[in-house]
Structures are given as C-alpha cells and as structure tokens.
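Whether sequence alone determines local backbone shape is best considered at the level of individual chains. When preparing material for the folding task, we compiled for one chain both its residues and its backbone structure tokens. The sequence in question and its structure tokens are set out directly beneath this paragraph.
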Amino acid sequence: PRIKQIYEFTDKVLNNIYALAKDTPYGIRYICKRILKYGTERYKEVSKKEIYSLVGGFFFLRFVNPAITMCDAPSVK
C-alpha cells in the first residue's frame, strides 16, 4: 500500500507541475532556456536526455523543491 501511495503522490505532483508550467515565473523559464541552449552548445557529445537533466535539475532544485517543502506534506499512515 505504501508503494501505491508513493506512486499516487508522485503522479499528482508531476501532473501539477505540467499543468502549471505556463505559470512558472519568466525568470525561471528564461534561465532554463539558457541552460538548454548553453548545454547543447557546450556539450555536443552528450545525449538530449543528459542536457534535459541539467534543465530538470535546476528547475527541480530551485523551484519545485522549495515549493514542496513549504506545503503541507500528506499524512503518512
């Protein structure tokens, strides 16, 4: 049952992130765009997946993670 709860919670979080992408502050979107452009130019030998992980890492650590830690966590039973 805990694994099911983790999947459900993760699904809700990711769906909310996708749904609110257009509401992401311009500065964050601009920085992500620049990371993508610079990463693509600088690291030509790596895959797109690795470049997107740069963007995703920045976005998660600087925007999503603080938002998650500031909200009420679901009760664990």
The chain has a mean pLDDT of 86. The CA atoms of residues 27 and 44 lie 26 Å apart. The helical segments are 2-19, 26-42, 48-70. The chain has three helices and no strands.
